[in-house]
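=== RUN LOG ===
request id: a7f3
mode: sequence -> structure
chains: 1
length: 126
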Amino acid sequence: MTSGIEFVRFSPMLTIKLKRIGKKHQPSYRLIVQEKREKLGGRYAEDLGWYNPMQDKYEFKRERVEHWLKVGAQPTDTVHNLLVTAGVIQGSKTPVHKKAKKKEEVATSTAPGIQKPETPEASEQK
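=== RESULT ===
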């Protein structure tokens, strides 16, 4: 007999990420499927390929990437852009870096009811 509490089976959120490997100043990456909150050095479900940004070369297991996307794994923004470039998925690239907000020009706008102080040139014209 249960006490009225229902247990919901937890289904982990899977992501397709880049895991950095390689030496200092010589980055190369593995494309892996991993639980979203798992540490990058921790367990991962599957290795899907590699990417070398120094030589701009990559190799992905297309069928396995498509399988994990159908299962519900979400690629990170950078991985999404790589998969679009490789032709594995269709669509447009997503912006990875956020644009800085433009500062409002305080000097040109003044609060209503407050007048700008007169300059000597303006008083000479009167």
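=== NOTES ===
The chain has three helices and five strands.
The first strand starts at residue 14 and ends at 21.
=== END ===
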